[in-house]
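Narrative of activities, Objective 1.

The group set out to show that a structural description can be obtained from nothing but a protein's sequence at a throughput compatible with the screening campaign. Below is one input-output pair from the validation batch, recorded exactly as produced.
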Amino acid sequence: MQPTDESSHQAMGYDRTSIMFSPDGRLLQVEYAKKTVRQGSTAIGVVCKDGVVLVSDKRIVSKLIVPESVEKVFQVDHHIGATAAGIISDARVLVERAQVKAQQHHVTYDADIDVLTIVKDMSDLCQYTTQSAGLRPFGVSLLVGGVDEDDEPKLFLTDPTGIFFRYRAAVIGEGEVEIEKVLQRKYRPTLSVDEGVELAVSALAEFIGNDLGIDRLEAVYINIKDKRFTKVSKDKLRDMLAKARK
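Output recorded for this entry:
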């Protein structure tokens, strides 16, 4: 039996560090990090006409866990939020760094930091770990959404390579292929914030099925009007989940 390309690369040690290219031009440690993201719990972002929405599955694995103690959506600044798929402790490091940068910007310039600056800083650190010996790549992707002073809602996706893209709607984590098909089919730029949350919840319900309970859902929005990071109440999420299952 002939070894596969990946197993032969492993035997040669090309996957032991993120700074060594394999003969066919791959960074195997970075590819492994991206596989970690695809195994993570799902997170969805949707840009709406009046704001941006972030919805996440917290994937509660035990009845003994206090659901409120599991955090999957983070506040970076009053007008910026982020959610993640992959190793959430890695995400926390990136988010806490972004929070500090946002506060430094406030102190220095007496103004809100823009979403793209936050995303670039996160991505720069992710990229740095792919070319530095002794470090491993961040095993996480983030959806970063917010509303800048130009009143335009923005959504960005970062990945372990350090690359980022701007999206109208995006999904990361488990089931991203199936849920992306739902988003492509149902997304409209004219969606309101409430409709955006409904779309994300229904897409999660369609993929996860009856295992998706209210304790697993976490959703926030930042609207254009007040540019404030606001959590969606459990009662509202419960109604949306019931509607999605009809």
